[in-house]
Specification:
The protein is mainly beta. It contains 6 helices and 36 strands. A hairpin with a 2-residue loop joins β6 and β7.
């Protein structure tokens, strides 16, 4: 069964708007040479750069465009140093694993785009590959528990992605080709008309991928409208539609991997996805020392997959259909210099309703979740070189699941989180800090689904996961150098994880994460820049039958080392090597299964600026390393990509 997706009218309309708007505006688009001040957004209000917390990593639009990378997952992996794994669908989207949460890492990280949470309530990766990199203004990676600001699931951290604000006229188009019949193209255009700014963008990507029966086709488009009502008020609305269709080759046996790692186990399986998001914002500077922000959004997503039971030909198959709608309202206030001293006090609420349906065979599952949260956070400047950050969040969850065959299940809990951080500047260029905080995660509908297997009575929900986190670190910069060193220790209770032995999700006995992170970048000469990162994580059971054993799918070490060399003002060569140490297979709690071997992957790039063109040639896994980063205790493995070649031309209208 060949996948031949028919993309819906919303996607076609969004893409048509982007292309038409680009055609009409290119002749007028101009790029400003004025340096814009760097603003950060991770604290949920726009702040000056000096407010960035020392454990956070910033990636600018300039970093992204100069790298030649054309999708956000690779930006996070190769520029941000975020450990990743393939998502088992063969798409460009990756699973991100901050601080060693293994198979359930996606459910322990919150990802936000322009104030809208896009981390899924079910076990699905955030589809960042569908957002054009040309539309990105900044990415802020916030490591460590961030549940005060971002709620459940932010146990390992959060990633905030800010798109361009359309405050200047610009137009960018790009196109690229690669091996495995890869083709891609993007358009981004923004235009100011009096006090109204408009931005339109679209993206297309198609590839056969390196494995057999793993073709993927992505299309997305967006339209942003914003208006500056007056000097103190701004509002806007955003529309985004994304579609994805992919063939699913499946995991293969370890024996077959060494015979032919490109082969497909299930040559007729496929999956489709359609997402639609509408969001709006309202910013108001009420007084010189009081700001108000409101984000509202509605996200709809529909997923379906077909799994054939006969690998030699489609004789019968199972259709899985998923649908979810999330409505969110997020008002907040920021008091500047509250109570007469230098501080930023934020008070806010997060309100969301989530509805979900899952159908396959006789199963017709319906789930609802209601979140009601209040939080307060104060960033206090004790002096020019000393800060204290305090925060507290209280959140009420009400969740219910009903299936006519299996019965019903409910979860009604109040959970809270706090954080305390002290930052001391040893100089204007060197900070040390200590942080204490807590985090939590609610079992999602997929976590609980496998606990009943369509039999009555429906069992109780899994328990919420909780953590207590400690962190010490330092960060510094000096001219062309920057560096950061962090030590962390997390104590986790009721960690939620999939158990291959039980064929369902379970709460683990108490676990912990301890480790160290180091990252740096330095201009060694006017033409040579080196950068790198290193992470050591000790993820293990604290109690129970497996006390002392490591958590599966968490490598002890990951490292990245890269160099950029300027051949002249217009040409640059880059090389990056990533290393991932060996790790236990999925479900291997007692250490009895074969380990996943460690691997090192090297990528190179060459970029050349010629007038308005930026040309980038990119080769990933240049030695065509045969490796896999996922395996389970039954001997199945999911091969990672071999040599990947790509050339992209990006034209900026001036």
């Amino acid at each position: 069964m060949k996948v031949n997706p028919m993309f819906t009218k919303p996607t076609k309309l969004a893409l048509a708007c982007a292309i038409a708007f680009a055609t009409l505006s290119v002749a007028q688009a101009q790029t400003s040479n004025t340096m814009q001040p760097i603003v950060i957004y991770g604290a949920r209000f726009a702040d000056e750069l000096n407010k960035v917390l020392p454990q956070n990593t910033l990636i600018s639009s300039e970093d992204i465009l100069k790298s030649g990378i054309t999708n956000i997952p690779e930006v996070l992996q190769k520029i941000g140093g975020v450990p990743t794994k393939p998502n088992l669908y063969g798409t460009q989207d990756l699973s991100y694993d901050l601080r060693g949460y293994g198979v359930n890492s996606d459910q322990n990280l919150v990802i936000v785009v322009d104030g809208v949470r896009i981390s899924e309530n079910e076990q699905a990766v955030a589809k960042l590959s569908l957002i054009p990199v040309e539309s990105i203004d900044q990415i802020e990676i916030m490591r460590g528990a961030n549940s005060v600001l971002y709620g459940e699931g932010a146990t390992s951290g959060a990633i905030y992605i800010k798109t361009k604000s359309s405050d200047i006229d610009r137009a960018i188009v790009s196109a690229g080709i690669g091996n495995n019949n890869a083709k891609e193209g993007t358009t981004y255009v923004s235009k100011n008309i009096d006090k109204v700014s408009i931005a339109a963008y679209g993206k297309f990507y198609e590839s056969d991928n390196f494995r057999e029966r793993n073709k993927v086709l992505n299309k997305s488009g967006g339209l942003d409208l914003a208006a500056a009502v007056d000097g103190a008020t701004k509002m806007g609305i955003k529309f985004f539609v994304d579609e994805q269709s992919t063939e699913l080759p499946g995991a293969i046996s370890r024996t077959n991997f060494y015979i032919n790692h490109k082969q497909a186990r299930y040559p007729f399986d496929s999956a489709n996805y359609l997402g639609k998001t509408v969001s709006g914002f309202f910013d108001k500077k009420i007084l010189s020392d009081l700001e108000f922000r409101l984000d509202i959004s509605r996200r709809e997503s529909d997923r379906s997959s077909v799994n054939w039971t006969n690998s030699t030909g489609p004789s019968s198959g199972t259709i899985y259909a998923y649908s979810s709608d999330v409505n969110s309202i997020n008002p907040r206030l920021k008091f500047i210099n509250f109570a007469g001293f230098k501080n930023d006090l934020t008070v806010g609420a997060d309100l969301s309703n989530w509805d979900y349906t899952y159908k396959t065979g006789a199963t017709n599952e319906n789930a609802k979740q209601r979140n009601r949260a209040m939080y307060i956070r104060d960033d206090i400047s004790l002096s020019d070189l000393q800060r204290v950050v305090l925060g507290y969040r209280l959140e009420k969850f009400t969740k219910s699941t009903v299936d006519p065959t299996a019965g019903s299940q409910t979860l009604d809990r109040n959970l809270d989180a706090y954080e305390f951080q002290y930052i001391k500047g040893l100089s204007n260029k060197l900070n040390v800090y200590g942080k204490l905080g807590t985090g939590y995660r609610i079992p999602n509908v997929d976590d609980n689904r496998n606990t009943f297997w369509n039999t009555a009575p429906y069992p109780s929900s899994l328990e919420p996961q909780k953590s207590k986190d400690y962190e010490l670190g330092l960060s510094g910069f000096d001219r062309g150098e920057r560096y950061g060193l962090r030590f962390f220790h997390s104590l986790i209770s009721n960690e939620i994880i999939y158990s291959e032995n039980d064929s369902r999700n379970i709460n683990l006995t108490p676990t912990k994460r301890s480790g160290v992170e180091f990252e740096f970048a330095a201009d060694m000469t006017p033409t040579t820049n080196i950068y790198g990162s290193f992470q050591y994580v000790k993820a293990q059971f604290r109690e129970g039958l497996n006390s002392g054993q490591r958590i599966p799918l968490v490598p002890n070490y990951t490292a990245r080392l890269g160099m950029d060399y300027k051949l002249n003002n217009d040409q640059k060569f880059g090389v990056t090597t990533r290393y991932v140490a060996s790790q236990k297979s999925d479900g291997d709690f007692d250490g009895s299964a074969i380990r996943i071997p460690g691997y090192a992957i090297t990528d190179i790039s060459y970029s050349a600026q010629y007038k308005n063109w930026l040309w980038t040639a990119y080769a990933s896994n240049i030695f065509d390393k045969k490796y896999y980063s996922w395996a389970n205790i039954w001997g199945s493995v999911y091969p990672d990509s071999g040599l990947s070649l790509k050339i992209v031309g990006r034209y900026t209208f001036k």
